[in-house]
Design goal:
- About 0% of the residues lie in helices and about 50% in strands.
- The protein has about 130 residues and is an all-beta fold.
- Strands 1, 2, 3, 4, 5, 6 and 7 form a seven-stranded antiparallel beta sheet that branches.
- A hairpin with an 8-residue loop joins strand 3 (about 55-65) and strand 4 (about 75-80).
- The radius of gyration is 14 Å and the shape is globular.
- It starts with about 25 loop residues before the first strand and ends with a strand.
- The model has no long low-confidence stretch (mean pLDDT about 95).
Length: about 130
């Protein structure tokens, strides 16, 4: 699930379609987000993102929940992507504080700040690596 989509050709399905020619673009405004759910409890270890330069979520709060049905969000950590048009990887395994011991079933990336004046976010690739429990 995503907070918004600029138009049909830049929908959420393009976040994980492995096609470097397609992307997700949000509408303008603060607080754009991506909500992910996992089939089984998971421990995310790494996030890889390719943004479009100029439309980068430069401050991203990562929230987690043990439930996918009715998530009760808690802030886990922050990542700070560079305003660049390249693959960026963020290791999460070092951020054990605030992480549920039994794994999570929902994760939300909330973009608190954007390099775009209007707050839009454009992502060509999103990949989460980790363990399924």
């Amino acid at each position: 699930r995503v907070s918004s989509t600029l138009e049909k050709s830049t929908g959420k399905k393009h976040l994980t379609d492995s096609n470097p020619e397609t992307c997700w673009t949000s509408r303008e405004g603060p607080g754009q987000y991506i909500h992910l759910t996992f089939e089984k409890p998971a421990i995310p270890q790494r996030i890889t993102i390719i943004f479009q330069g100029g439309f980068v979520g430069t401050k991203c709060r990562i929230e987690v929940s043990e439930s996918s049905d009715r998530p009760e969000w808690q802030t886990w950590t922050y990542i700070h992507p560079e305003d660049a048009n390249r693959r960026q990887t963020f290791d999460l395994i070092t951020h054990k504080d605030g992480f549920p011991g039994e794994g999570i079933q929902s994760m939300k990336l909330v973009f608190e700040e954007s390099s775009d004046f209007y707050g839009r976010i454009t992502i060509y690739e999103l990949k989460i690596d980790g363990l399924l429990l």
